[in-house]
Amino acid sequence: MNKFPREQIREARILVVGDIMLDRYWFGEVERISPEAPVPVVHVARREDRLGGAANVARNARALGAQVTLIGIVGRDEAGEKVQKLLDEDGVTHALVEDDSFPTIVKMRVIARQQQMVRVDFEQAPTSDCVARLNQIARAQLDSADVLILSDYAKGALGRVQELIVAAQEAGVLVLVDPKGSDYTRYRGAGLVTPNRLEMQQAVGSWTDEDELERKAQALRKLLSLEALLVTRSEQGMTLFTEDSRDHVDALAHEVFDVSGAGDTVLATLAVMKAVGASWDTAMRWANRAGGIVVGKLGTSTVTAEEME
């Protein structure tokens, strides 16, 4: 890797489309067990809201210096207003579909003594009308994008994802996908798909050695007509499969504090590096560095250009 291309990244235009959520953290202390049930009583002392899902991908790309537009679905509620406020504070341009019948997705975590005690999720699937409006807005933004990121958390915003990939192909825009589920045919024609180890197993089955992984990965890459397939493997690093090669980098993290949102950071870094003309191999190595930094932080966090340098 050469020097981090900070100046070029300022001109990069990243379009992020996908499932938006609000990560809500309640921090407190545990000093006793509830008399009502054998559970700890957390005295909440501090609350913090952070962008999650596709919104976290967008803020990560923005933190690296790129110009970022986010498209997704939120409710007309307090959480939706908070999402938009946080996006504005982070400098992320947004064109969101707001819907009265769709509550903004919220993941609430209660944390005490640096340990997550419980997580409570509030979510429901968006209507087909919302998804259609999202696709319409996204297609209109493609002409002003260098790279399209599709952040799929299986919450419904990307229910018609193949339409977006076809539109991006027609516009000559590279597509990067963070996938979900076992049917990857819906991502056919993207430039890159980035499953983690578990997601890869769900898509192609388990493997017994590196040779079998390579055979299955290359078969999937060819089936989907991908330029590249990147398998993120936690403590085992990352493995990149392209038509010409297989490349691997070991994990760089010295201390893993929290892996929440690490995949978002990796995806955002890949997109930013591809937007400035980096090869897949170079983009992967910078993404590996970013991932190694962010897992040392609590919750969904970002990596800045200064930290990358």
From TrEMBL:
It holds the Pfam family PfkB. Residues 13-302 form the Carbohydrate kinase PfkB domain. This is D-glycero-beta-D-manno-heptose-7-phosphate kinase. One of its GO terms (cellular component) is cytosol. GO terms for molecular function: heptose 7-phosphate kinase activity; heptose-1-phosphate adenylyltransferase activity; phosphotransferase activity, alcohol group as acceptor. The keyword Kinase applies. InterPro entries: PfkB_dom, RfaE_dom_I, Ribokinase-like. Gene3D superfamilies: 3.40.1190.20. It comes from the Bacteria. PANTHER family: BIFUNCTIONAL PROTEIN HLDE. It comes from Orrella marina. The keyword rRNA processing does not apply. The gene is rfaE1. Keywords: Kinase, Transferase.
